[in-house]
């Protein structure tokens, strides 16, 4: 799909990524397009699955109140599907990535307290098939896109 995105589509996606609540009229003004053209582009991007949803960004004050960690996970062969299903059940896990290298996955955890983080790490470790985890607590975010 990325090969059929033109520069205006890419600019529109970048603007929506920065502020998904920005009005169609404002997006159109910034892009130099009509409101109906921008609306049509958004609908096309949604229809083709380029845009699958809209989300929020937390304020810096809220984000810094969260205890965030990256958990590197090694697991037994052929256990990936079941492990992902079990990780998905833990609400403090915000994302899971398959990676190459020493570890098989990285889970991003966001908890309200160190106690909640500790509980999540215990729950991850108890999942059948997980052989090893190594956690790194995020101290600060230098930038995020």
> End-to-end distance, in Å?
21 Å
How many β-strand stretches?
A: 4
The CATH H-level homologous superfamily of the largest domain: Lrp/AsnC effector binding domain/regulation of amino acid metabolism (RAM) domain
Number of helical elements: 6
Alpha-beta content class: alpha+beta
Mean pLDDT: 92
Domain unit count: 2
Residues in helices, as a percent range: 40-55%
Radius of gyration, taken over Cα atoms and rounded to an integer in Å: 19 Å
CATH architectural designation of the largest domain: 2-Layer Sandwich
β-strand amount: 15-25%
Which descriptor suits the 3D outline? elongated
CATH class of the largest domain reads Alpha Beta
Instruction: Characterize the largest beta sheet: strand count, sense, and whether it forms a barrel.
Output: 4 strands, antiparallel
Order of helices and strands: HHHHEHEEHE
Short description:
With 145 residues, this protein is an alpha+beta fold. The protein has helices at residues 7-18, 24-31, 35-47, 60-65, 80-88, 114-125; strands at 67-75, 93-98, 105-111, 130-137.
